[in-house]
Here is the input.
Amino acid sequence: MSDNKTGNSPSRRAFLRGAAAAGAGALTTSTASAQTAEPLITEVQPWAREFGDGVDAVRYGLPIEHESDVVRRNVEWLTADTVSSINFTPIHALDGTITPQGCAFERHHSGAIDLKKEDYRLMINGLVDTPLVFSYADLERFPRENHVYFCECAANTGMEWAGAQLNGAQFTHGMIHNMEYTGVPLRTLLEEAGLDTAGDLKDKWVFVEGADASSNGRSIPMEKALDDVLVAFKANGEALRKEHGYPVRLVVPGWEGNMWVKWIRRIEVTDAPVESREETSKYTDVLDNGIARKWTWAMDAKSVVTSPSPQSPITHGTGPLVISGLAWTGRGTITRVDVSKDGGKTWETARLAKEGEKMALTRFYLDTEWDGSEMMLQSRAMDDTGYIQPSKAQLREVRGLNSIYHNNCIQTWLVRSNGEAENVEVS
Amino acid sequence: MLKFPKSTVLIAASVFLSNPAFAEKLGLGRAALPEEIAAWDTDVRPDGTGLPVGSGDALIGEEIFADQCAACHGDFAEGIDNWPKLAGGADTLDHEDPLKTVGSYWPYLSTAYDYIQRSMPYGNAGTLSDDDVYSIVAYILYSNDLIDDDFVLSNETFLDVEMPNAAGFIFDDRAQAEYSQWSGDPCMENCKAEVKVTMRAMVLDVTPEETKAEETTAVVDATPEPVEEVVVEVAAFDAELAKAGEKVFKKCKSCHQIGDGAKNKSGPVLNGIFDNTAGVVDGFKYSKVMRKAGEDGLVWSETELAAFLAKPKKYMKGTKMSFAGLKKEKDQLAIVEFLKSLED
Here is the structure.
């Protein structure tokens, strides 16, 4: 970087003013342009002289206080109260793919309950040979598996159908998390109860419900139940957090989050779906003509640039810039992500940090140079079925504006020359 | 009865091929007892499977609804504020912002029975008797003009009710309607002639502010206004009246807990609320106006409480308490007396 003339250009000064106005001025120190020696280096700092905390100062740690703005947030006007409500993962401030449990979005229908392992019971009944009750300890004696999966609420991005509404990737795309689960395949538990009674399994279902006051019952076709559904008790190596269903939740890879029943207490084999409230009144998608789609379980391929984004503006001026984001698909594996800086006129293929994994988040990067000009940033995911993430216009053409759920449109961030970004829609 | 739509059979057929070769059992768990299954297996299906024997009508239902549901869903099931509307919305499904209610949208009546018996009333779920649920469901149907008030809803008449939007649903057809259009080789260059911003989120300004941490510091830093001396009236306590108030409190129970181990729910814990400053219960997120009222010195005296509870939204514009109010003066007096009896 011998040519550093952008360092003093008007656009850079304009940027600094802009960044300060955006309240994001803290990180503007540029080592490239230091004129006087930095005391941070020339003077012995307190942390380099004195002791830090001893072990056991904190028996179970939270992030350091300087990261206290990286938290779940909710949008008060969305719901009548916080007990049946949703909050959002701060995806604009995370990197990699694993979501720490402590900041992974929550959605409850009657609040997060306190259920001890010793009070936990899981019943399997209905069309099985022997209806069974398992304790938590029983579950730990079945062979278990580990898998990383994303969980996305079907309403993620649902506020954006009619137009650009919420200003931040956390709010537009934060109803998602991605964890490594440890658990027992549902198939194993169903086999333990015996499926001979059920006869032909092709048109059978399982109805699953939770132990909380809402119980959030859902019907899952037997094909899926026997395929990859997991009865999980650990996430990211540790016990599930209370808000994620401690001690046991269901994991339904690639399918909408509402089916991932928390505090799961009962699994019933049936010959028809129950048509519960969560699969009729909710989680059905009204089209323009008033007819609604039902059983839209799979989450289609989707992606979003997490940085730069409205809550994560560019604060370093022109020059090297990492554009970063997340991509996922409930129908397989992400194979490619393209990024556009001009609102979809031209596209460049981004670098996947790791090869896509089945039904898990994939991180992408576009390592680029920014000249300080305005950008209309977009990302577009593709998966191994050949599917290409659609634009908002394409989605609206098929579905209209009222379907609430399953909005997997291409998102646009308008990045201004001062580095600030805004949620916009483009022609 | 219902078969899968073609598009759901995407999962590898191999799932079923191994059907006969199921793994060996480990002998874990124990047999579920019939009374245990009966306690948990309460789901009700479209064909009536699972309906308990029982009956009720809209007239009985109206009373129960007024008592246990109307605080949130409105006297006529029309909904209050942000709480769900259960009635209305007929013929709006193909309009902008359709109103989806039990009457206008739900395809099966069984769903209403199933959901209400398992999940409502909110905050006190699983407490309704079978006959109560039949009556309430009848009242919701009545509010949607779907039955007459003399119709007796029971396990036997249940399937006689026609739901207007029963035929309003199709199976997931994304595979046919979307997937073939949105695949292939994506455009990389000259994909559009011109790009213009057509809508901006900042214009709407509905995103929550980023300033949680600052807000709290600001509150802590502010020098508290000296609270005016309050002349404490030594209020006499009427045990009889308080007892009547306990009954009225049923209307509050879905949002407010009291007594030992009470926790904040959608409303704050009300222990010790009488003669206390408004908006100061630990850990509860009040509306701005309630917090401000407390900071400005509002104390819950007999008069203030009665006025607030008579018409919450009128008394305090912007309060989060979505409660229509206690119309009868008798009830207002009784509830205040009851609140006096709740010690901190």
Observations:
- Chain A touches chain B through 115 residues (CB under 8 Å).
- Confidence is low (pLDDT under 50) at residues 1-29 of chain A.
